[in-house]
Specification:
Blueprint: H1 2-20, H2 22-25, H3 34-55, H4 61-75, H5 85-95, H6 100-113, H7 116-129, H8 133-145, H9 151-171, H10 176-192, H11 197-211, H12 220-233, H13 236-249, H14 255-276, H15 282-300, E1 308-309, H16 312-317, E2 323-333, E3 341-346, E4 352-357, E5 371-375, E6 379-384, E7 399-406, E8 413-414, E9 417-418
Parallel strand pairs: 1-2, 4-7
Antiparallel strand pairs: 2-3, 2-5, 3-4, 5-8, 6-7, 8-9
Helix pairs in contact: 1-3, 1-4, 3-4, 4-5, 4-6, 5-6, 6-7, 6-8, 7-8, 8-9, 8-10, 9-10, 10-11, 10-12, 11-12, 12-13, 13-14
Length: 435
């Protein structure tokens, strides 16, 4: 019987390998066939397990627990929960309360059904028995999904999630799934930890490590969340490319296309604001430009009086120069989450730039005509062509504009006064897992 059980375990591992490697060995054109092929394999393995269960001695608790666990493990390979998974795994852990894999698979099955609290209890039980990579990864993910206010509980959940993801990576440094979960933890920390560029960089590094694993590199979740990170890194082309790939890898998942559509709208709004100079009439625009000379003198006398005010073109030509940029607000670019908070600026030469400000408290907005001083600005040029990657919502337009990123709004001087630390905000984020 032992050889027979080993054979079933091998078949289940082969099933998961087939699932993970599907798009490594198959073309994306077969995306709609993936789950039907997996269903056939699952049905075949489940049928043989049921046959063995029907002749298994009721007194052989260990063997029966293994077969019940294998059945639940097999059913967990499916995209959605199937009847029988939770029931089989619940029986398995009742027969063998120290069965680590059964507790992990029960947690997975409960999570698929949406019973997150019970799933956490199962993974917690698993981790008390053994600190496995599978248990740590899953618990890290659930802690992020269920992180809620008040702030102290939210902080603890997110930090514990990060520590568990790190532990999983330390146990198996080449495991791409653990690196992916770690990337998601860092992306959550980017939002909750003051939108720190360091956290964003660590998320990107983790996603890159995950993509080195052949089992993970074609996972739609990986490309979706990596594309979110690219968006906040302001690599818009890479973000759109990733959302497109994620959509192709899971054609029934609507989130990637929605993200693409929203990002293209955002890029369109920035480009339009820059091109039309906020739609301001000539007289109003000239008034803003004329005001810049008097406002500039007041701003330079403030905290940045040692810095010389330079034009956008001067900063582009000499990016190492120690200076500040003084501009007038042309308008605000609306977004769903105001991350970043984007405004259009114009300098005294009538050159425009998008100012992307992170970690801004809601309600701390600007109005047209506000004067903003930015110390040590770095101007980045963007040219994004959604049509080159076939992104939904593209009409062939090329979006081209310059931007300046500000990670700490407290460094800004607005209308002659430091903006202040009261403008800082901590936000929550949402990362996706579908498989």
């Amino acid at each position: 019987m032992e050889n027979s059980m080993d054979s079933i375990e091998t078949e289940i591992k082969d099933l998961y390998h087939f699932k993970d490697m599907y798009f490594v060995v198959n073309d994306l054109s077969k995306a709609d066939e993936k789950w039907s092929e997996i269903n056939v394999k699952v049905d075949d393995i489940e049928r043989r397990i049921d046959e063995k269960l029907s002749v298994c001695s009721a007194s052989n608790h260990r063997e029966k627990a293994m077969l019940l666990c294998y059945k639940g493990w097999t059913l967990n390979a499916l995209e959605e929960s199937r009847a029988g998974a939770v029931e089989s795994l619940s029986k398995a852990v009742k027969l063998d309360p120290d069965y680590v894999r059964a507790w992990n698979e029960l947690g997975e099955a409960l999570a698929k059904k949406g019973d997150i609290n019970s799933a956490k209890e199962s993974f917690a039980r698993s981790l008390t028995l053994s600190r496995t990579v599978e248990g740590l990864r899953s618990m890290s993910m659930l802690l992020r999904q269920t992180a809620t206010s008040p702030e102290d509980r939210l902080d603890r959940s997110i930090k514990e999630s990060l520590e568990m993801a790190r532990e999983a990576v330390s146990l198996e440094p080449e495991d791409g799934k653990s690196w992916y979960i770690l990337g998601n933890s860092y992306l959550m920390m980017f939002f909750h930890g003051g939108q720190s560029p360091k956290m964003l960089k660590q998320a990107m590094t983790s996603y890159s490590r995950a993509a080195n694993d052949e089992r993970v590199k074609m996972d739609p979740d990986l490309h979706y969340n990596q594309s979110l990170a690219y968006k906040y890194k302001e690599d818009y082309q890479a973000s759109l490319d990733g959302f497109l790939l994620s959509s192709k890898l899971d054609s029934h998942w609507t989130a990637p296309n929605l993200q693409s559509k929203n990002l293209i709208q955002y890029l369109n709004d920035i480009s339009k604001l820059m091109r039309n100079k906020g739609g301001l009439k000539t007289k109003r625009l000239h008034s803003l430009i004329n005001e810049l000379s008097s406002d500039s003198k007041a701003a330079i006398q403030g905290p940045y009086k040692e810095l010389e005010a330079k034009s956008i073109d001067d900063i582009i030509i000499n990016s190492t120069i120690k200076c500040c940029l003084i501009g007038k607000v042309l308008g605000v670019v609306p977004t769903d989450d105001f991350v970043p908070f984007t405004v259009g600026l114009i300098d005294h030469t009538e050159r425009t730039v998008a100012l992307n400000i992170y970690n801004v408290a809601k309600g701390s907005w600007f109005t047209v005509g506000d004067c903003i001083v930015i110390p040590a600005p770095i101007v980045v040029h963007h040219m994004v062509t959604p049509s080159s990657c076939g992104t939904n919502g593209s009409d062939g337009t090329v979006y081209e504009f310059d931007s300046i990123r500000v990670d700490n709004p407290a460094i800004l001087v607005v209308n002659g006064r430091p903006w202040g630390r009261d403008k800082l905000a901590q936000l929550s984020a949402h990362v996706e897992n579908t498989s």
